[in-house]
């Protein structure tokens, strides 16, 4: 339940990469001039559940290891699915 609480504290944003990011990483690491929706590295780094998915690159920028984040997301989805099943059973469903 602590992991679920920590995961629920992650916000989602609508954002574009700033010019400095575009200049340094154009076409790499998912950086482009398009609008994106999702969490930001700074928030993931501060969260105990997702902090291991964020690293500083050779230029000092925070980057998200999306493969590791996908594994973390899968684990959390699994935990939430078990929680839903448990609640459904308590409510007399299934």
What does this structure look like?
With 94 residues, the chain is an alpha+beta fold. The chain has four helices and four strands. The protein has a two-stranded antiparallel sheet with strand order 1-2. The protein has a two-stranded antiparallel ribbon with strand order 3-4. The model has no long low-confidence stretch (mean pLDDT 91).
SSE topology:
Blueprint: H1 2-8, E1 13-15, H2 19-25, E2 36-38, H3 41-46, E3 54-56, E4 62-64, H4 66-90
Antiparallel strand pairs: 1-2, 3-4
Summarize the entry for a quick read.
The protein is an alpha+beta fold. Helix content is 48%, strand content 13%. It has four helices and four strands, in the order αβαβαββα.
Q: Helix segment count?
A: 4
Low-confidence stretches: none
Overall geometry: elongated
Largest sheet: 2 strands, antiparallel
The overall average pLDDT, rounded, is: 91
**Gyration radius, in Å:** 17 Å
Rounded to the nearest angstrom, the distance between the terminal CA atoms is: 22 Å
Would you list the SSEs in sequence order as H and E?
Answer: HEHEHEEH
> Structural class from helices and strands?
alpha+beta
Strand content: 5-15%
Helix percent reads 40-55%
Please tally the β strands and state the result: 4
Strand order of the largest sheet: 1-2
């Amino acid at each position: 339940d602590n992991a679920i609480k920590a995961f629920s504290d992650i916000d989602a944003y609508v954002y574009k990469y700033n010019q400095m990011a575009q200049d340094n990483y154009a076409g790499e690491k998912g950086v482009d001039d398009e609008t994106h929706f999702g969490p930001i590295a700074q928030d993931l780094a501060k969260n105990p559940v997702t902090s291991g998915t964020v690293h500083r690159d050779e230029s000092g920028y925070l980057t998200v290891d999306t493969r590791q984040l996908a594994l973390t997301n899968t684990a959390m989805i699994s935990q939430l699915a078990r929680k839903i099943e448990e609640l459904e059973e308590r409510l007399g469903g299934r």
